[in-house]
Amino acid sequence: MTIEEILKECWQLIIKGVNIPSTVKAKDTDYVILDCDYDLEDTPSNGLVVKWFFNANEVAYQWIYGRNPLAGDITRKYVDLKYKASDNPYTTYRAMKLNKPGIDLSGEYKCVISTFADEQSASASMLVYSTEDKFELIHRKKIIDDKNGVEITCMAEGLYPQPTLDISIEDVPEKQTKPTITLRADGLYDILSRTILLDENLPEAAIVKCLLGIPKVNYNISHKAVYYPG
């Protein structure tokens, strides 16, 4: 074994931890920090480069030791390139500070720390979710086959990722209705669910409930109303 090979075995670039929030609420979050804490140990710093990748191969951020950090296309409008994660000159710009994160930042992130002698990586995912801008429950009387009835509509706008929306009436067997889901140009979802019922099948005071949810982040919110048949 050569001296160079022996030295390489002693070198040990270590990633001590990758800190990425798993879920982030859009609009309510001022900033998030994606941190990749590492230690060069005895590894020479020659060729030190920190790279963050988004969804496998898109460069989101890059810092070459001795130069200023650079943002990729996905992070350019969010990243604070002046943010310093530490006072150690070899780890100063290891992290990304993303201001007012949007849903387009949802995905898998991988930090790659490399020198001429070694390379290590670590990854984690982040989901930026959006709760509703609008949520309504509307009921109106409707004639169904010459009988009195009601049309119940629940709708919500501006959610991410894909939401669910269920209509239920207390003490009435649940009637399965498939909601209409629309993916907007801005990446957010609108959802609408509608059901029609005869008054004769409803209690005197029917408690109507709309349950809106985003399963991936365990988010739920409901609206209730009372409908009086007749």
Descriptive account of the structure:
This protein is mostly beta strands and about 230 residues long. The protein has two domains: about 15-130, Immunoglobulins (Immunoglobulin-like, Sandwich); about 135-225, Immunoglobulins (Immunoglobulin-like, Sandwich). Helices cover about 5% and strands about 50% of the residues. It has one helix and 16 strands. Strands 2-9-8-4-5-6 form a six-stranded mixed beta sheet, with no helix packed on it. A four-stranded antiparallel beta sheet has the order 10-11-14-13, with no helix packed on it. A three-stranded antiparallel beta sheet has the order 1-3-7, with no helix packed on it. Strand 15 and strand 16 (about 220-225) form a beta hairpin. The protein is rod-shaped. Mean pLDDT is about 95; it is low at about 1-10.
Task: Set out the fold topology.
Layout: H1 3-10, E1 14-19, E2 23-25, E3 31-39, E4 49-54, E5 58-64, E6 70-71, E7 96-99, E8 107-114, E9 119-129, E10 134-144, E11 147-159, E12 164-169, E13 180-183, E14 189-198, E15 206-214, E16 219-227
Parallel strand pairs: 2-9
Antiparallel strand pairs: 1-3, 3-7, 4-5, 4-8, 5-6, 8-9, 10-11, 11-14, 12-15, 13-14, 15-16
